[in-house]
Amino acid sequence: MSRLQELWQSTGIYQIEFTQFVMILIGLMLLYLAIKKGFEPLLLIPIGFGGILSNIPGVDIAVGDGILHQFYVMGLETGVFPLLIFMGVGAMTDFGPLLANPKTLLLGAAAQVGIFSTLLGALFLTDIGIFDFTIQQAAAIGIIGGADGPTAIYVSGILAPELLGAIAVAAYSYMALVPLIQPPIMRALTSQDEREIAMTQLRVVSITEKILFPLVLLILVALVVPSAAPLLGMFCFGNLMKECGVVDRLSDTAQNSLINIVTILLGLSVGSKLGADQFLVSSTLGILALGMVAFSIGTAAGVLMAKLMNVFSKQKINPLIGAAGVSAVPMAARVAHKVGLEANPNNFLLMHAMGPNVAGVIGSAVAAGILIQFAG
Hints:
- Helix content is 72%, strand content 0%.
- It contains 22 helices and no strands.
């Protein structure tokens, strides 16, 4: 009987705590959203599965010598995984729409307002005693507004690793919810006539321009904000491999096999930080709420910037494309295109929206560098 009792006490059923059971349910919910609803499945499936594994009592897979902890140490403590993801994203990015209409860079810049306004909001809520965020934690929360998962993970891994799980879940959840969150904001801030604005066809961008742009971009930004160089450097390197046309094998690897492998490891590493003791705290609700605010402000700022530009521009742009400045490539551009089609069936905004969409990726990387430089 004593052996049976010892065996029973060694089981996970005996050892499991209520908070661990709740986190396993949250992991299952993430898997449901990814599989059934199609919400960012490439990341939410490994994150959800890693969260389940990390909350099974007696396994210690997410601490010490556990495999998930080893993934975390290898890729997130060093920042390697987000940087490799950025290289792959760069290899899949076309700067053509941005180069064809450079003023859309302002839309991507405007959308970053959500990041810094949420940073100030988090600090204000701390000052009045609602939350207890440090400047580093507030900066990591604010980056959710960029709607760029790898950037959010990179910044939180450096500034606030204890919040990594909550920030990653919030960032990817809101990226997945772009089709639900953005359209009401876009319609509320634009008139029917503005949504019907048709934009002229973009000019053809030469290969020389596409090769020179990532080089010029990296050098100029890195000289001003050195902390942005790692993220932006890997992004520009991936894009250069794609556009130069002489390393197709490397470009193909970055776009496919490498980014797929890293995505699996990154997701499991983030899942290892979904332990009950780290996730089920009051600050998590604050992170989720502030992340939503950041994303909404970024969307609104992009649309309002487009409306402001139209006041001073003879060639009008459709304000809907400003919402694509939040990054979330290419979903935000598709949403702008869809809302535009609803207003005008002949209104094809996808390629126009890709300009601010790509600019948003650049803007979030620069914003990340600024936050790391001043809050780190």
